[in-house]
Amino acid sequence: MQSEFLGIDIGGTNTRLGLVSSKGKIVSSGRLKTRMDAGPRALVEGIFLKAARMMGENQIIQVGAGIAGLIDHRKGVIRFSPNLASWRNVPLKDMLEQCFSVPVAVSNDVNAIAWGEYKYGGYGTENLFCFTLGTGVGGGIISDGALILGANYAAGEFGHTSFEGNAKCSCGITGCLEAYVGNDRLVRKARRRMNLASPLMKLTSGKEITPRLLARAAREGDEVALKVFAQAGRRIGKALGNVVQLLDPEVIVVNGGVSKAGDLILKPIRETLKRYTMPLEGRKLRVMRSKLGDKAGILGAATLAEVLL
């Protein structure tokens, strides 16, 4: 019998599970529908049943869960999640502990991703800032090997840092970075600018534009797609200048769906960041695409108890 950790990534549509070995390998994985309308109790029961089938003869000794939103890490309570808007003040930690009878840690999903990147990404640093680019823009901070949570459990909200202009963000504030570089913004901008002769138009064939199609069009030389990524990269690079001045990380890791565009967005990020970072002798700042991708959240969640309990 082997002892394993269970990592849970709760999304608005699907919940992903992974059994993680003591060496940081995902040995078994599964998923189930989140079904917000069924309520948190149904999800927890579904997680338990799925995990029981996954572990076979092995033993789960620790559980961790990551979910988008404002999470009371100490109590393991979901205060609010944009993906599950009707779930407020849900005692997820207690509910999971009742099922599994092992220690449980609950965190914001990007904090789980950041911890996974730090612990298993092999970046060779104790000071790392990880941010995700997707529907939203999130951030997680590792400083001197510690996960920084903040007094109100809201540290690292990179997407909601003040940026520019009057674009309204989903959080209710105007001018948030997320309002300019989130998936929806990139897609809307491309839709407005593309023309009938562009590779992007041919790729979509009248279908909905996705970040993946946008990246493919950019690689095929579509000028609209290239400009969309370049502008987003410049904005992110400028915003990261503030992060670097405040946190002095050695590595910045880019995760999330849009990061799969690779150098299309990483190059303008790096170039712009140089212009907005105070030069320091000996500074060796690296901006890197995630090495772990979708696995980071599961790996980080599985070992969250190390820092939260």
TrEMBL record:
<dbReference type="Pfam" id="PF00480">
    <property type="entry name" value="ROK"/>
</dbReference>
<dbReference type="InterPro" id="IPR000600">
    <property type="entry name" value="ROK"/>
</dbReference>
<comment type="similarity">
    <text>Belongs to the ROK (NagC/XylR) family.</text>
</comment>
<dbReference type="InterPro" id="IPR043129">
    <property type="entry name" value="ATPase_NBD"/>
</dbReference>
<protein>
    <submittedName>
        <fullName>ROK family protein</fullName>
    </submittedName>
</protein>
<dbReference type="InterPro" id="IPR049874">
    <property type="entry name" value="ROK_cs"/>
</dbReference>
